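Why predict the complex rather than its parts? Because the way molecules touch one another can change local conformation, and only a joint prediction can capture that. The input here totals 227 residues.
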Amino acid sequence: SYVLTQPPSVSVAPGKTARVTCGGNNIGDVSVHWYQQKPGQAPVLVVYDDTDRPSGIPERFSGSNSGNTATLTISRVEAGDEADYYCQVWHSSSDHWVFGGGTKLTVL
Amino acid sequence: ELQLVETGGGLIQPGGSLRLSCAVSGFTVSSHYMSWVRQAPGKGLEWVSIIYSGGNTYYADSVKARFTISRDNSKNTLNLQMNSLRAEDTAVYYCTSHGVGVSRYFHHWGLGTLVTVSA
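Output of the joint prediction:
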């Protein structure tokens, strides 16, 4: 099965840039999607197809994907960005949908 | 307005069965890929099952042969029949809809329903 690896935690000061990584074997060959989940709430899609944002998601959220690492970048971080972030791909050979283990973003 | 509302969760003994439903408004369930995703307490997200718009279904290995996903087009609902439940099935179960067309992401999510498997 395909494994996605995320750091358990990332910390960043307000106004700075946060980068959350998602590692996987040749992940650059597939589309990666990112979700934000705040405590007690359902996840929210923030980036899809590597770089696209759903309507209503601030431009501060952006994504990139190449080689063995995909990255969610959050610019000008705000206190309200504190949440768990999950990456996700579709594994075509098994027709299974895979999530990373999640990264807790702490705003200092 | 697009809305997904899950019902049917609760406390169930190991080995028991439970049926979850997801009432959908704002679009037709048969026109989108629809999935169930679960989250055990304090854990990450886990995909459970998908039903494609064409009707094909797929399951995570952890639930295969125990869970069955289906949809009721007349009621515009998504269902998940869960049999032979185990303690490790304890989780919040989210109903999700994928994006338009051939979509590999979970676009819209319900608020979830909690399933607790315990004696």
